[in-house]
Amino acid sequence: MNPIKAISKHVATFRINGRDRETIIEPHMLLVDVIREKLGLTGTKRACGTGNCGSCTVLLDGVPIRTCICLAITATGSAITTIEGLAKSDGTLHPLQQAFIDHAASQCGFCIPGMLLASAALLADNPKPTRAAVKRALVGNICRCTGYVKIIDAVLDAATQRTKTMEVRT
After folding, report:
1. CA angle, corner 96, sides to 110 and 159, nearest 5?
2. Which of 78, 77, 119, 79 is nearest to 97 (CA)?
3. Cβ contacts of residue 71 below 8 Å, gap of 6+?
4. Contacts of 77 by beta carbon, 8 Å cutoff, 6+ apart
5. Residue 77 Cα to chain centre, angstroms
6. Whole-model pTM?
7. Contacts of 108 (CB under 8 A, 6+ apart)
8. Which DSSP symbol is given to 81?
């Protein structure tokens, strides 16, 4: 008998971007690899592999997490939002996405999925953040291109636009 124990596989179910998805995973698989390789959602970026840069950020039950240090098996049964799920199903951009465009807050774009999702979580919890609150919310997301000013301005603008839209509806 082989002393090396066979790796067990599990059927994992996730609610990704509003759709139930099922795939077979192994216990050691990282969530970033399942999202990118098994589910084909390549907007989630694999970069540092240590949870330090934020490029792999998704929302897990509304909370930003680093998928490069999260075992996929621990996220089974959770609701996950990736960058592909931020826009509306009809293709209308999320106010944050539009604000990033309007403020030229993206250069190479590699960090932007994580920046947008961390920002979306912030605005869900705090619809009128201060500049300091935006900085704190993005502290774990590294951008090597823009210097953050345009990113922070975009988040604040999206919050203002969202507040204006909400005020008009009431």
Report:
1. 140
2. 119
3. 27, 28, 29, 30, 31
4. 13, 14
5. 17
6. 0.89
7. 144, 145
8. E
Task: For residues 150 and 115, give the distance between their C-alpha atoms in angstroms, rounded to a whole number.
Answer: 12
Q: Considering just the CA atoms, what is the radius of gyration of the chain in Å?
A: 17
**pLDDT in 10s for each residue of the chain, 170 residues:** 454 555 689 999 999 999 999 999 999 999 999 999 999 999 999 999 999 999 999 999 999 999 999 999 999 999 999 999 999 999 999 999 999 999 999 988 899 999 999 999 999 999 999 999 999 999 999 998 877 999 999 999 999 987 665 443 33
Joined together, the tokens standing for residue 110 give 């590699």
